[in-house]
Amino acid sequence: MSLRPDLQLVAGLVPVGSRVLDLGCGDGELLAELIAARSCSGWGVELSDEGFYGCLARGVPVVQEDVDSGLEGVERDEVDVVVLSETIQALHRPELALREMARVAKLGVVSLPNFGYWRLRLELLSRGRMPASAELPHPWFETPNIHLCTLGDFEDLAAECGLSVKQRIPLNANHRPAGGLAGLRPNLLAPGAIYVVERS
């Protein structure tokens, strides 16, 4: 099975041969690709039983821990890259995750949905209800996404946590790079984005 387009983009942003820590790694699909195709080493952190056992089934190194508790077992600069793919919005303590990312690696790759996307803004304005979309498909009372943010919000928090944006790739609804105006006004016109961030 091939990776989703956004995960392919994330994988391509991780330098070949890197030591990688994948936070909220799910069933290890991305990390397995990084190990097999990009000669990376490392491990994932996953809280759910389903994801943890999925990693084990793939032969992906994983620890079952809560990212919201911090990364006390990981030394400063122990890895080259931390990946936080479609996870930050589901964390109780996203600021802690970004600070820990900056501590344990110089480079991070973060992907997230954009709650500032114009269709979501319009739906909230016109219907007066929490919007749903392909990127945010769950009703408000069942969503795992507890800290929805805009791309601008994320960039502000990253800066506060000592991370500078090295690259931003706005995504379209098909999880592919968004061209045209979305590249100029991603906070309004892109449903999501992938960031490469670097410790300042």
Structure explained in plain terms:
The protein is an alpha/beta fold and 200 residues long. It has a single domain (5-199), classed as Vaccinia Virus protein VP39 (Rossmann fold), CATH 3.40.50.150. It has helices at 5-13, 29-38, 49-58, 94-104, 118-127, 151-160, 181-184, 186-189, and strands at residues 19-23, 41-45, 62-63, 81-85, 107-113, 163-171, 192-199. The chain has a 7-stranded mixed beta sheet, sandwiched between helices. The longest helix is centred in the middle third of the chain and has 11 residues, at 94-104.
Q: Which helices and strands appear, and what pairs or packs with what?
A:
Layout: H1 5-13, E1 19-23, H2 29-38, E2 41-45, H3 49-58, E3 62-63, E4 81-85, H4 94-104, E5 107-113, H5 118-127, H6 151-160, E6 163-171, H7 181-184, H8 186-189, E7 192-199
Parallel strand pairs: 1-2, 1-4, 2-3, 4-5
Antiparallel strand pairs: 5-7, 6-7
Helix pairs in contact: 1-2
